[in-house]
Amino acid sequence: MRYLPLQQIKENSILAIPVYNDTGSILLNANTILKRAYIQKLAVLGYAGLYIYDDISNEIIVTELLSEQLKRSTVQALKSFNLDSCRLMAHSIVDELLNKSDVSVDMVNIASFDNYTYIHCINVAVLSVILGIGMGLNYTQLKELSEAALLHDIGKVNISIDILNKKEKLTDEEMNIIRSHSQEGYNIIKDNFMISGLVKNAVLSHHENEDGSGYPRSLIGKHIHIYAKIIHVCDVYDALVSNRVYRKAMNPADALEYLMSNSYIMFDVSCVKKAMEYISPYPTGITVELSDGQEAIVVKQNHVHHLRPKVVITKTKEKIDLMKVFNLTIVKIIT
Asked: Which one, of 54, 29, 15, 14, lies nearest residue 287 by Cα?
């Protein structure tokens, strides 16, 4: 399978990975033949691209980190605003990820405009748990981290969708409304005795920056809990690689570069380093340009060095392991 932008997908292509709607249910199942009407509708809904099967990429395997059932149940818990169910789903995310042999992030985000809010919360929880595992957090800590990450944007529930999805630059008043969501999220959960103080603090503090320029309390790095630091990195990364009504998604390599360039300013450097270890800058199935000008598809990751995966040349179908061919590098992502 391979990932292609929606405008490059031909009619009658075969869908490789399911497409979900805003309730977490499957909109189009894997192996669906993509009719022109389907592609046009997905474009209207705001999907940037899809994973499809074709002759050159049939051997490529991309695996989703969460099961369809857990993803759907988590969306339903978030939509119903049931905090107990959200906590249960957060713990289930930890359990599923701990049971996997490889928890690296190796997929392009294919959420739409309509289901962005809920899928974003799930993505941030998954990313946060993966970084937490890499940083050696214990099981109890991972469950708390997952709760906080899943609930980090709960304060946006009462913010107008017109502000959240505004294409134009936000006014100062609108920006203040957006920035109130971390405090509002804390207010929503502060009296729930089942939620730990560390989780509540992380929801409140996930937009604090290392240099004290964040909000709502302008904390500097040493006063920001590790849960909030991890969630901050994962929140920004997922936002950058997601397609929004007001901007196109950034590719994973550029998003990781943004995290690195803002270490010590916005982000804790140890969290960014873990993101670099566990998030593939060139996800499996995407098309890249090599330093000799050839176009290639990423076939498989080299987990020792994410910058040098195995690729297949699109014209010749020659397979190349960039860990063994040192005179070639990836210069940019094409799709």
From this structure: 54
